[in-house]
């Protein structure tokens, strides 16, 4: 997470029209706030992922034993619990990759145009991972709503100040690319790092 810390402590290099001291609207603190909150969510998701991975490994061991003992009922119970955990792991890691991507994008903002172009897709992306996570980590919903509110606020002000029109069609395509890429990477991580769930012989 060193790159995240570097970004949080570094000074933004803005172009002239982005020197917000000329405006009364404090965009810079709000952007910092978005970064800070996204960073916190990334850390939380990483911790939850680690916990679930440990649970997954323990359940795989139990399943192996119950299959060897031919305990069909117990095996199917563990199998369904494992499938549920894998679903959560998939959703959590997809969301973490998305947040990492958004964090990097926000770190590299250098102008109002840049701000609008990078933050507009992030609205759609945040909404989709918010709905993806809700059934897995209910308590994250409130924080995601806060980040969304801040994003809307910054975008609205940046659009007004910089006079840029927001192109939602391009933004939605970009959002889709970010999400698809995260899903692909999460699937790959699970395939590489997790043992396939053994099938109980019925």
Structure characterization notes:
- Helix content is 78%, strand content 0%.
- It has helices at 2-9, 27-68, 72-107, 112-133, 140-162, 168-193.
- Helix 3 (72-107) packs antiparallel against helix 4 (112-133), helix 3 crosses helix 6 (168-193) and helix 4 runs antiparallel to helix 5.
- The chain is mainly α.
- The radius of gyration is 21 Å and the shape is elongated.
- It has 6 helices and no strands.
- The longest helix is centred in the N-terminal third of the chain and has 42 residues, at 27-68.
Q: Which residue ranges are poorly predicted, with pLDDT under 50 across at least 5 consecutive positions?
A: 2-6, 8-17, 20-24
Beta-strand residue fraction: under 5%
Intertermini distance: 46 Å
- Helix percent reads over 70%
Can you give the mean pLDDT? 84
Structural class: mainly alpha
Shape: elongated
Number of strands: 0
* SS field, number of helical segments: 6
String of helices and strands? HHHHHH
Largest sheet: none
